[in-house]
Structure formats: structure tokens, C-alpha cells
């Protein structure tokens, strides 16, 4: 999804949640519950944006995690699929657990 479209879609969802707007409840409820299918065993489809970028980030992330307590924020797609950061971090020994969002 193009960045501009994704940003507009996400902004609309957040606005609906904050204003308790019940239009398009299914999408809003899904986002609010954060029940995301990360498709961790599905191959990555976009090697330039996902695989290549995730591999470059993992070089930096793994070094930072050795010496720092880190919060890492990335777009959803970078967590997903076989090449995602979740799988890559688990492959080097980290345990990934979701955090409750308020």
C-alpha cells in the first residue's frame, strides 16, 4: 500500500477509535484489538523494501540490543513474513512478546 494511502487510512481509523465513531466497525475493532496475523511462515514478496531493509536494520538492532535496553518502532510490514524482524530476532535467540496497548 502506498505510504500516503496507508497514512490516510490509519489516521481515519485512529480518529474513529478516539471519537467512538461506529462507522466501519469491523476495521476499527480489528485495529483496536491489534489481532494481527503476522504471516510469519509466508515468504516476503518485496525484497527491496522488506528483506533488504530488514537485513540492514538487523545489523544495527542486534548490536544495539547487546548493550542497550531498546524500544524499536517500525511499520507493520517489517514485522511480518519470514524475513520480518520478529523472525529474525527470534532466530538469534530473542523472545518476542506483545505488549498491551492502552
What's the gist of this structure?
The protein is an all-alpha fold and 102 residues long. It contains four helices and no strands. Helix 1 crosses helix 2.
Per-chain topology:
Blueprint: H1 3-18, H2 25-33, H3 47-67, H4 85-91
Which structural category fits the helices and strands?
mainly alpha
Discrete helix count = 4
State which percent range the strand residues make up. Answer: under 5%
The biggest sheet amounts to: none
The poorly predicted ranges are none
Radius of gyration: 16 Å
Give the SSE string: HHHH
* Shape summary: globular
Describe the protein.
With 102 residues, the chain is mostly helical. The protein folds into two domains: 1-35, no CATH class; 38-97, no CATH class. 52% of the residues lie in helices and 0% in strands. It is built from four helices and no strands. It has helices spanning 3-18, 25-33, 47-67, 85-91. It is globular, with a radius of gyration of 16 Å. It starts with a helix and ends in an 11-residue tail after the last helix. The model has no long low-confidence stretch (mean pLDDT 83).
List keywords for this structure.
single chain, 2 domains, mainly alpha
Amino acid at each position: 500500500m502506498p505510504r500516503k494511502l496507508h497514512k490516510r487510512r490509519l489516521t481515519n481509523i485512529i480518529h474513529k477509535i478516539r471519537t467512538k465513531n461506529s462507522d466501519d466497525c469491523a476495521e476499527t475493532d480489528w485495529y483496536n484489538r491489534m489481532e494481527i496475523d503476522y504471516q510469519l511462515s509466508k515468504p516476503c514478496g518485496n525484497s527491496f523494501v522488506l528483506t533488504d531493509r530488514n537485513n540492514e536494520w538487523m545489523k544495527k538492532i542486534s548490536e544495539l540490543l547487546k548493550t542497550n535496553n531498546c524500544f524499536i518502532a517500525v511499520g507493520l510490514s517489517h514485522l511480518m513474513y519470514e524475513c520480518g524482524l520478529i523472525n529474525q530476532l527470534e532466530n538469534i535467540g530473542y523472545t518476542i512478546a506483545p505488549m498491551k496497548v492502552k
